[in-house]
Specification:
heterodimer, A: 201 residues, Rossmann fold, 8 strands, B: 397 residues, alpha/beta, eight-stranded mixed sheet, two-stranded antiparallel ribbon, 10 helices, 10 strands, 33% helix, globular
């Protein structure tokens, strides 16, 4: 088991207190799950849409089921987990708001990371290039992107306010997934992605 | 209890172990009858470790038996799950103590309709035949649990089984959660569907329509309902395959002829194949046992026993689960496994679920399916390290 994971996943892992229960929704190949289980003694479970991803996770000894964030979170009981994690997947869900609500029902806390659609490169490409932006964190063509609900950091904050959700932590990351510390207006311009830890209010 | 055995039972019991259970405390069956004493025939592979933590129970399917990984004494064929169990395989006897029992109601040495009524009562000393009480999956598991008690094992490391074996796994996990560290129900369901009950009924009617069945008392008349049982097997066998697999294997190919014969011989290879499946089956399986075991599957409905809510069968379960289904299995389709997964999620259980791409139908779980082996191997390694069974041979820590 590797002690190194993608830097943005590391940011999420660092928010998780050791020894609890976590559900990683859209866990991919299980890198974060394996890290949490091994280095944080977390009872880590996963949900993944792609069958290939699920099979790889289970073959690696991880507890993962095939499932869809939009439809399958509702199977879980209230407060089943200390953390429900959604990394780089919120923008691909059909109903992001409902998914967040489910996450905060199933988990005591939700940790969400997403690409910032208000990053200066995105703005430049759209405003001056006149084309749908393609960047390192948004590498898809407009016609085959899984990202159907992109938002900016400020959009996300607004949604949290609207939902009455408390933001316990917010980390804004630069293009190398390093945290940057800027006032909100600038963070929304220079942050390439963001990681939020939320809690029901 | 060992007299008047069939040839098959005699051969089976000569090659496996058995225990006479229920002498002091009979088995209270779901139908209300107290059964005892009764015999459970079982096979083991490997050695139970000092802290008795490495026991794996394999549960066989409808027509399976305890010879999961060695030569079947009647047919001479390899064990039905030798792909999985054996030296160097995923379930290595060098690491695990592997147990497989012939189910209650079976015909390979465990007590079933072939046995004699131990009494007291008017039938004492007579063969049970159709007077044998109808048993359920729950009864089968209670008998297995009694054997596990008899072997002095408090907790099984893992219970694994496919099809009806998977039903037993689910029943084990639901009724003995603390005794099952890990559970692997494969290609199964928490309840038998209407379609599956319907197919079983066709099979049973074929047996009972055979004049040699004699109301179940064929042994007293020195006959056997071989034609009826063969037809039951032929019908069932179709449900174990997929349309694609049948088409790929046989198509419309003719059997030993260049043109159709304008008669009712087995013109087509698929007919010849099914007839062969039917005729070889009757040599190794008892017709009454087939009635009882299919009935047990029909009666299985895990949610019904928990107020109609499947999740309640698993409330607070400490067991870790790994479910597998196959894309072309129409007898126990993926949605049945998914229903169990949903229930386990609702109980916040530790569950993994993999659907495996295969065109081999329900039978896929018995075949060489690398993805199934990979999944099972990963799951078992994770569970073994959680159980403190440590690493084994060349495995990475």
């Amino acid at each position: 088991m590797s002690a190194t994971i993608r830097v943005d996943l590391q940011q999420i892992a660092d928010m998780v207190e050791p020894g609890g229960r976590a559900l990683d929704v859209g866990c991919g190949d299980g890198a974060l799950l394996a890290y949490l289980a091994t280095f944080k003694r977390v009872d880590a479970r996963g949900m993944e849409l792609s069958q290939a991803g699920v099979n790889a996770c289970v073959a690696g000894g991880l507890s993962v089921v095939q499932g869809d964030a939009d439809t399958d979170l509702r199977d879980y009981p209230d407060d089943a987990f200390d953390y429900v994690i959604l990394s780089q997947t919120l923008q691909a869900t059909r109903e992001p708001r409902a998914v967040l609500q489910q996450m905060l029902r199933v988990g005591k806390r939700a940790i969400v990371s997403f690409p910032n659609f208000a990053h200066w490169q995105v703005r430049l490409r759209l405003v001056f290039g006149g084309r749908m932006p393609e960047t390192a964190s948004l590498p898809y063509k407009w016609y085959d992107t899984p990202n159907i609900h992109l938002c900016s950091i400020d959009d996300f904050r607004a949604l949290c306010r609207d939902m009455g959700v408390r933001i316990e932590r917010a980390i804004v990351l630069d293009s190398k997934s390093r945290p940057i510390h800027l006032p909100p207006l600038l963070a929304n311009l220079f942050g390439e992605q963001a990681v939020f830890m939320l809690r029901r209010d | 209890m060992l007299d008047d055995l069939t040839d098959a039972e005699r051969k089976a019991l000569a090659q496996c172990r058995h225990a006479i259970l229920g002498r002091e405390r009979p088995l209270r069956l779901d139908c209300g009858v107290d059964l005892g004493p009764y015999r459970i025939a079982y096979q083991t592979y490997g050695t139970l470790n000092a802290d008795k933590s490495n026991a794996v129970l394999i549960c066989h399917a409808l027509t399976g038996d305890q010879f999961v990984a060695d030569r079947q004494p009647v047919t001479g064929k390899p064990g039905w799950w030798e792909t999985l169990i054996g030296p160097g395989k995923i379930l290595d006897p060098a690491r695990y103590f592997i147990i497989c029992t012939n189910v209650l109601g079976g015909c390979m040495g465990s007590t079933g309709p072939l046995a004699h009524d131990p009494g007291p009562g008017p039938g004492a000393g007579q063969p049970w035949n159709l007077r044998f009480p109808v048993v359920t999956i729950g009864d089968m598991v209670r008998a297995q649990a009694a054997l596990i008690d008899h072997l002095g094992i408090a907790q099984l490391f893992c219970v694994i089984g496919g099809s009806m074996g998977g039903m037993q796994v689910l029943e084990w996990a639901a009724s003995h959660p603390k005794r099952v560290f890990a559970a692997v129900p494969v290609a199964t369901a928490a309840r038998h569907s209407a379609q599956n009950i319907a197919f079983h009924e066709v099979g049973r009617q074929a047996i009972m329509a055979d004049p040699d069945w004699k109301g179940g008392d064929y042994r007293l008349h020195d006959t056997a309902p071989a034609r009826g049982l063969a037809v039951a097997r032929m019908t069932a066998h179709i449900t174990y395959l997929s349309e694609q697999a049948l088409q790929r294997k046989f198509g419309r190919a003719l059997q030993d002829r260049n043109a159709v014969g304008f008669g009712f011989d087995a013109d087509f290879q698929v007919e010849s194949y099914l007839r062969h499946q039917g005729s070889t089956f009757v040599d190794r399986f008892d017709a009454n046992s087939y009635l009882y075991i299919t009935r047990a599957m029909d009666y299985f409905d895990l949610a019904a026993a928990h107020g109609g809510v499947l999740a309640k069968a698993f409330t607070g379960t400490p067991t870790r689960f790994c479910l597998m289904s196959f894309t072309s299995d129409w007898l126990f389709p993926t949605r049945e496994s998914r229903a169990v997964v949903h229930a386990l999620n609702a109980a916040a259980a530790n569950v993994s679920f993999v659907e495996i791409e295969s065109d081999k139908g329900h039978d896929a779980f018995l075949l060489d399916e690398p993805e199934m082996f990979r999944t099972l191997s990963g799951f078992l390694q994770g569970a073994a390290s959680a159980r403190g069974l440590g690493t084994f041979r060349g495995e990475a820590a």
